[in-house]
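ingest -> fold -> write
write: protein_1
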Amino acid sequence: MRIGNVHGRQDVRPDPVPAPVEFDVEAVLLSEMSITTSIGYPDELGTDLNLLPTLDDKLDSLIAHRFPFDCALEAFGAARKANAAKVVAVFGDER
């Protein structure tokens, strides 16, 4: 199991799916951590990718900041801030 911590979130990825995992419930409660689970299936990716072009107008409203790719370090800095719902580094004329 790989565990990463990004902006206070724990990212846990099984490889392969492990046996049940024990964790310290008291530590979770005291740190006010939230545990969110999700699962995806390999056969869903094609459908999801085909839907993306139909959602352009909705997805644009989710992007808080856009940066040209050559300003990627600045984009990472913006992504660390609390008001950055979604930060995107774009190539060429996509801005």
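write: protein_2
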Amino acid sequence: MTKRYSIAEAWDHLGEMVQEVEAGNTVELARDNRPVAFLLPFEEYERITERKPGFWDSYQELRREFGFDEIAIDPASVFGDIREQSPGRGFSPAAVDARRGSSPGGIGGIDASPT
């Protein structure tokens, strides 16, 4: 449960606020009825300021924990028939220009070809 104190009240109730925090509660300090600060138990402060590992470090830990390197899976045999192997559709700058309504070889009617 969070108790709220105004900044003026906080001067007179510091001992009470510390007891609240020691009991595991959070204390809110407010100025003009708007929160400006919180007092929280030290364990909670440590939890929220602790540096968490990034995605890559977590992924590597997962690989070590479950022995992914020992499994020896060949990605080509698992995923080989999933991806389309063709190079895809062709690209033509003239077709792009025609769709945009500009002249061939140019961008928006400006000739961008090297001279």
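write: annotation protein_2
The mean pLDDT is 82.
The chain has one domain: 1-81.
pipeline exit 0
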